[in-house]
Amino acid sequence: MSARTARLRTVLRVRTIQEEQRRGDLARAAQAQARAAEAAADAAARYGAREVADVGRPLAASVFLAARDLETLRADQVTASAAGHALAEGETERSRVLLAEARTRTSGLERLLERAAEERRQDRLAADQQVAEESGRAREVEPR
Asked: Is the pLDDT of residue 144 over 80?
């Protein structure tokens, strides 16, 4: 094995490790996205399950303000959880792109090593062919 091939194999091992790390990053991002989606759905369900009582009846200002503050908090929770879900989706997509890039680099190195191995095989076959031809010519020249 040549020094170049040894270096390429080392780089390939590093790239493979990086690809595995990216795969783990993607798995963690997908889990975070699932948790964020669940949190957003829960917040939306809590917001949608609000009770509207005494519709059409006059309320005391303090009761109205307390109800409004509660609804504002619920709406803020929905907004925050939806934003968290959007961020998690973005992180998942980013992880997907990084994994694709890592796979591309790894496969490029694999192809390069395969090509080098094929070139070495072709060189050995050519050398074997040359030895066979020389041996055949030597037999033709030898008197019997």
From this structure: no
